Amino acid sequence: MHSTHRLELFPERVVTLLLFKDVKNAGILRKKAMEGAIDGALINPTMIVDSFQILVAANKAVHLHEVGKMKTRSLYSEIIFNLSPANNISDAFKKFGISDSDSAVLIVLVHEKEDKCNPEEITAHVEGRQISLEDLPTITDVAKVKKLYKLTPQEEKVGTLLDGIICRMATKDVI
Question: Which pTM value belongs to this model?
């Protein structure tokens, strides 16, 4: 039920994605992640259009981690920050991190290729139903995503929603 992707720019690193819905303990999960008891990024999946969005954020986070230029304190918080179109860290956590009332959670794990990732260790903490990543579009709030990324109808005529999002994520440090 989980999805695993090797990072192209860092072939020794692997990203594992776990999607849950009907989550009853989001507040507890959030607290555990903040304490470091859960070693992963807990993301609000209503703001995610495609897993590629996560992979771009993870690639950037790993790169910044490797060169010592992260803007946040951990690799996982850097992934959440990189999803945001803005440079405000607390705003990124409000928009892309989970809140106590969320009923869906996307967990992102980054690990070395040779290390055995044990998703069951993480899923044991979640009081919810794990679903396939292919069901992500049923959770995404497209209107909210378009508003946050300030995507215009003209942009959608020449590219996809995902194209506009990735463009905003990639250029936020430049603008």
Answer: 0.94
